[in-house]
Amino acid sequence: MRVKQMLLDGDEITYTIGGVKFRYLLENKPALKVGQEVEFTELIRKTRPYLIMSKETQKQMEG
After folding, report:
1. What's the pLDDT at 38?
2. b vs e for 20-56, b when ≥16 Cβ sit within 10 Å of the residue's Cβ?
3. CA angle, 62 as apex, 40 and 37 as ends, to 5°?
4. Where does the chain have alpha helices with state H?
5. Residues paired with residue 7 on neighbouring β-strands, in sequence order
6. Rounded Cα distance, 34 and 17, in Å
7. Which sign, positive or negative, has the C-alpha torsion 36, 42, 47, 15?
8. C-alpha 8, offset from chain centre
9. CA triple 18-20-21, angle to 5 deg
């Protein structure tokens, strides 16, 4: 999957990868760049984001 977007928000950073958002504290963020190809399962196993939101989850939170 490809990193589609990176959003910096205070001391947190959110990556959008394949329609799923991964949120990290800046001190724990992986070294990813927009456009980079990543293996989804490896990303979760190695980096341990503190929040993972799918499009469906995000819609439920907004609605």
Report:
1. 92
2. bbbbbeeeebbebeeeeebeeeebeeebebeeebeee
3. 20
4. 40-47, 55-62
5. 14
6. 9
7. positive
8. 11
9. 125
CA distance 37 to 40: 9
Q: Within 10 A of 58 (CB to CB), how many other CB atoms are there?
A: 13
Handedness of CA 54, 18, 13, 51 (dihedral sign): positive
* 2, β-bridge pairs: 37
Least confident of 4-8, 16-20, 33-37, 59-63: 59-63
H-helix or E-strand spanning residue 22: strand 20-25
Of 1, 63, 62, 3, the residue nearest 32 (C-alpha): 3
Q: What angle do CA 49, 56, 21 make, to 5 degrees?
A: 25
